[in-house]
Amino acid sequence: MSKVDVLPQVAAFLQRRHGCFIDGQWVVPEGATSPVLNPATGETIAQVADASVELVERAVLSARKAHEARVWSGLRPADRERILLRFTALVEAHGEELAQLETLCQGKSINMARMLDVGATVEFMRYMSGWATKIEGQALDVSIPLPEGARYTAFARREPVGVVAGIVPWNFPLMITTWKLMPALATGCTVVIKPSPETPLTALRLAELAIEAGIPAGVFNLVTGAGNVGQALASHQKIDKVSFTGSTAVGKIVGGVAVQNMTRFALELGGKNPMIILADADIDKAVQGALLGGLLNNGQVCAAASRFYVHRSRYDDFVAGLAAAVSTMSIGAGMDTAAAVNPLVSRKQQQSVLKHIETAKQEGARVVTGGELVESAGFYVQPTVLADVNHDMAVARAEVFGPVLSVIPFDDEDQAIAMANDSVYGLAASLWTNDLTKAMNLVPRIEAGTVWVNAHVLLDPNMPFGGVKQSGMGREFGRAVVEAYTEIKSVCIAH
Ligand code: NAD
């Protein structure tokens, strides 16, 4: 065991009475609070405010006022970029503190929190900062005939969409907060963020770093609480765009309430992502890819590989290789740098994953390794490989969102593609083959927002990310997200 010591500033932050961040200040309500638990021990480590409807109202009006006063969108793009780069540098400088806060409330590995939750977030922030100076419109030739002899020059400019509500899940709290926040800030929008009640700590700290960086008061507001707070935000008439990441069930509600006000919305939802391993694939590489793609963040990744379609000729090799690797993984707290598998985020998530495993067993799946609860006050589940899974079993269809890998054989590629596409979800998929012709012919047939070949779950800020079917609507990252946070205004000048 190699346990990381909690930084004094992290310990002090946990002790604070946390409020909501509105108009550049903490507002600590008198009312109810909710505990934040450490998934490794089940103990309460912090208390966070449950925002009232009145506080949500204040946060939205603060963002609205800042938007209308153009305190942010009115800055020179180069000034916005400079402030955002300063914000990014502050996040990097406070990286260890943020990584520890993330691990302590989410349960994830501190190694990963440092590398991905902070490291990749900083890269994403730097990438998005640069977009502030690269927003462009279009010059338009027009043929307006009236009045006779008149001449017109027209152009389309991209303007910030306005006030953005960002609703965030618990699996990558800091990272997904910045996936909402940074495109909004780069394009000149103002924001109200609502983190998940399980994992609000890094977003709270981020609000302070934003002010320190020079982002004006009112541009970045934050309210904490459960789903009712998210719903009050998403349905508010003075919100111009809702960017939601979370479950498909809640995404449908959020989309529904947004439509009532004609609020633009983007939904990044669940996934049941296939990994298709063809007969010619390198099985050792596929096993390594399955470990990363399936068990990153203990399987609590929307794009995680969770159903593995393997050509029957390679099925036994793949199952044996995967089981051998998974069965030796050490299980422990996220703050233990030697632990490869960590607790799930909550007791509820642990129970839900165990129930999926139990149902799979009842339906005839064979547990090759794992499959049990780990006796502990924390929320652990053994990493699990299920073989002899039938494509019709619940475990092959429902999003488990935990360390459960289901392996299914196939006989020909058409069958593999048909099973991969036979899902309500369409977030991500991967294809494992060394045959370039096969890869190029099969990629267009896979119904998913992202398809990797000989890789899985690797994202890049310049590569649009999002789902098809019930995995969501809209794209994050790249030029696509800049377009999604701006609205086109046509300007026509007579001369
Ligand atoms: P969730 O849907 O339960 O909650 C997400 C957020 O919505 C939380 O902040 C929650 O408090 C809030 N919320 C709950 N009810 C609401 C309502 N009626 N109106 C508005 N907001 C409401 O999801 P979760 O359990 O936090 O996260 C896990 C889910 O997120 C999984 O399904 C996973 O696939 C998905 N996810 C998707 C992506 C992606 O990019 N596609 C990324 C990460 C997670």
TrEMBL record:
InterPro entries: Ald_DH/histidinol_DH (IPR016161), Ald_DH_C (IPR016163), Ald_DH_CS_CYS (IPR016160), Ald_DH_CS_GLU (IPR029510), Ald_DH_N (IPR016162), Aldehyde_DH_dom (IPR015590). One of its GO terms (molecular function) is oxidoreductase activity, acting on the aldehyde or oxo group of donors, NAD or NADP as acceptor. Coiled coil: none annotated. Pfam families: Aldedh. The active site is at residue 268. It comes from the Bacteria. Residues 26-491 form the Aldehyde dehydrogenase domain. SUPFAM superfamilies: ALDH-like (SSF53720). Keywords: Oxidoreductase. Belongs to the aldehyde dehydrogenase family. This is Aldehyde dehydrogenase family protein. It comes from Pseudomonas alkylphenolica.
